Amino acid sequence: MGERPSTSDEPVSEAIATTGLILNIASAIALVICLAAFSAEQVGLALIAGVGAAFTFTASLICFSKQAAEAEAPVAAQAANA
Q1: Neighbours of 40 (CB within 10 A)
Q2: Where are its TM segments located (predicted)?
Q3: In Å, how far are 13, 16, 62 from 70, measured between CA atoms?
Q4: Residue 1 maps to a domain
């Protein structure tokens, strides 16, 4: 049978992924607030919530990309040694 790829059990990687997930949920909530404020004709609040949604979504993508890079590093090193 083939070898199973090693999993990343490092706490730092898990913390980054969890932070990304929380930021992603926060961006969804901010987007809902943005749409609700816009429909209530509160453009200022809608603008602030929209910018917050864009910022938190971008931050979540950065967290996920950093976590993926950390998870791939040991696999690439192991493949180079084989």
Answers
A1: 10
A2: 12-38, 44-64
A3: 7, 10, 12
A4: no
* Helix, strand, or coil (residue 10): coil
What does the block give as tokens for 26?
Answer: 């926060």
The number of domains in the chain is 1
Q: How far apart are CA 73 and CA 40, in angstroms?
A: 48
Range of the domain at 32: 14-81
Tell me the per-residue pLDDT of 58-82, one tens digit each, with 9 for 90 and over. 999 999 999 888 877 766 666 676 6
Residue 27: burial class (beta carbons within 10 Å; 0-12, 13-18, 19+):
buried
- Phi, psi (degrees; rounded to nearest 5) at 15: -65, -40
